[in-house]
Structures
1.
Amino acid sequence: MSDPIAIESVLNETRVFPPSQEFSANAHIKSFEEYEKLYAEAEADPEGFWAKQAESLDWFKKWDTVLEWNEPFAKWFVGGTLNVSYNCLDRHLTTWRRNKAAIIWEGEPGEQRTLTYQQLYAEVCKFANVLKGQNVKKGDRVALYMPMVPELAIAMLACARIGATHTVIFGGFSADAIADRVNDGKVKLIVTADGGYRRGAEVTLKNTIDNALPNCPNVEAVIVFKRTGTKINMSSGRDHWWHELMAAAETECPAEELDSEHPLYILYTSGTTGKPKGILHTTGGYLTQTAYTTKMVFDLRDEDIYWCTADIGWVTGHSYVVYGPLANGATVLMYEGAPNYPDYDRFWDIIERHRVNILYTAPTAIRVFIRWGESHVLKHDISSLRLLGTVGEPINPEAWMWYHHVIGKGKCPIVDTWWQTETGAIMISPLPGATPTVPGTATRPLPGILLDIVSKSGEPAGDNEGGYLVAKHPWPSMLRTVYGDDERYKKTYWSEIPNRYFAGDGARRDERGYYWIMGRVDDVINVSGHRLGTAEVESALVSHEAVAEAAAVGRPDEVKGQAISVFVTLEGGRKGDEALKNELRAHVAKEIGALAKPDDIRFTDALPKTRSGKIMRRLLREVAAGADVAGDVTTLEDLSVLEKLRDDED
Ligand code: PRX
């Protein structure tokens, strides 16, 4: 069952893991033939396929047209009306799921709370009324800067209920990063908490909001959930306690009937410029694809306890902690804190105590667990697990094998899921009862998803030939635009390759048709599964008074996938030293957040540039990785700069 079957292949990776017969027999999709048949049908008629999936949602009014495509602008289920909150809550209340646990929450200090669908519904209705009481109307934007507590999901669902568009800001972002997002989104109200717990310490969220607010002129009110009880400043008239408003709120709040294309949320993500992009997702298509993929990729069944470890501040948390699972009536486990608090076995302890069945996490976490050692895992009975998933970056075969053996005990299928903030939902993944898996590949596109690997001019690549990963046909959960900037949307995603959505990733396809993601081909780096634009780090650095010019590149890192390496030239002959390095790290943390702190900083007299003045990033990447610089360097403005960079290494 668990032993790999070696196959003839030109690739290094020849281990193939077919699903076990037991798993396949009970799965939604039971064989590879069944997947291929479904795929072929959907390929011949993608609209028909997705219309069928949309039928599993509750619509107030059915759509007239499945897809309206004016490249590059898509509208799905045109003319239809529905409500995401209704689909995640109300419709379960007329079934036995009314008393089923929707969210089982564990705080880092150890508290536990369970909210049934009925209880979650009641909280969402009340908070929707609280928002209305604060003058939040359909179409307004609300920012959520919260720890991982059920109230974050409650606030999202309450926004969805009244047609307000939420923008969740990850709790690790700094005051400046918050202000950028809040202003770009013209946010009217912020929901936050006094603090949250992370690795035994308190993250003081409200203080950070206080620091952002002087630069956010449109914000009228702040609602503060009391999580830690720490002393905070409450500005009278502007700041309100969550519990006080909730105590006074009406309990009934009918879900608004919203257009299928009504904006559900904006989520900011890094790109190749210094300014993050507000990725806009809408209602009907988004929920159709997140609900469908949650059910099929995780082979979800009603009795499962499902745990996606992502923070809701990232897209994975939106689609696979909140919307996809709740639309399916699933039981979602939600954990507030760090995997090593109070000890290195916290995850396995949680899995044992709650009898978790499905675990969805990031390769970087798996590599950290490998480093901590399997003894922490072996202390616990984690035999309840039946399916494992990964997301966010390519998984190296070593981490895959460890996940398979140590966590999955050789019996759990692994779904390596490829997708992006922009795609909204999973695009490439094994179907666990059907697809034989190979460590390191997300395998095949899901039914209804039409992808290709092409050259710059759009010519399809041959087997095992590297190229650009593109979508050939719109998909329901695709981004609709970059918020407030249609031109940027066109330019970023639809101009590089003719008539194709270009995802930013390089990939190759092997002779089985399996997709191997090779990583980003643009100036975006993936640090611990989080996307960062090198331009963002650079603009943070040059905003420091000592810095004249900066270049940031990614370099391979065993645990984080990529680490951030920066090259800095200083103003007016200033000399760099350790103290300045620390100052620059702190400065970047202040400008963006701790997640963007450079791992290595090198001071240099000049940056290597082409004759046209472009920074030669490839060379910098090679220096950062410690490799010898290869290739044609004759266009270097000053060859000696490179040598100097090498000499100046930390
Ligand atoms: O490079 C790909 C990588 O993560 C990028 C998307 O990042 P983000 O929008 O933050 O969303 C992450 C969670 C969906 C992609 O362009 N990526 C994501 N999943 C995989 C992956 N690379 C390889 N394999 C994956 N399974």
Note: The radius of gyration is 24 Å.
2.
Amino acid sequence: MNEHGNMNATEIQIDDLQFVRYITAENIDRKINEIARKLRDDLSDKYPMFLVVMNGAFIFAADLMRKLDFPCELNFVRIKSYQGTQSTGNVDIFMPPDIQLRDRYIVIVEDIIDTGLTITSFRKYLQNLHPADIRLTSILIKPEAHLHPVHTDYPGFSIPDLFVVGYGLDYNGKGRNLPDLYQLKA
Ligand code: IMP
Ligand code: MG
């Protein structure tokens, strides 16, 4: 990592890019407490199914789940998007074959809502499986980057349209293990 070794540095380099510390693990933890409280208020008697979008959301999901004190389930999904030349883009969705979502309360767990393509496609896909409800939580949201209108029911931090790494998010596959979030140095 940070050719770096120091997991708590204020500035790090990953490949060709420099990043500065932006949101600390402590502040992220506080935000997740708020999200967990709202989820409990809304869904504690609904036995919700959390669908975690791999890979980026794995750390957020792990932290969030351990703050929920009501019955719930979790599964992982993989969504691959191909931006290509099409403005709409294309996505492939990989779900475990054996989960039943009919009449379930679903909460999608994302790391970041950027263009909104991933989540818009996934929502459409889920709608066809006739759940009772589909809600969305994301630890990060880039409102300026949205190309598709996305409503995040349980939002974390709204951030400017700058690349970030850490807390599950990667650059070239690296940086997911950093406890804090880092922003691309301007
Ligand atoms: P969307 O479909 O454009 O909303 O893309 C969302 C996906 O792109 C996220 O789930 C991330 O995996 C990735 N992504 C978007 N912005 C960033 C970023 O700043 N850092 C790391 N990954 C990002
Ligand atoms: Mg992702």
Note: Residues 56, 81, 110-118, 163-165, 169 surround inosinic acid (ligand 1) (CB under 6 Å).
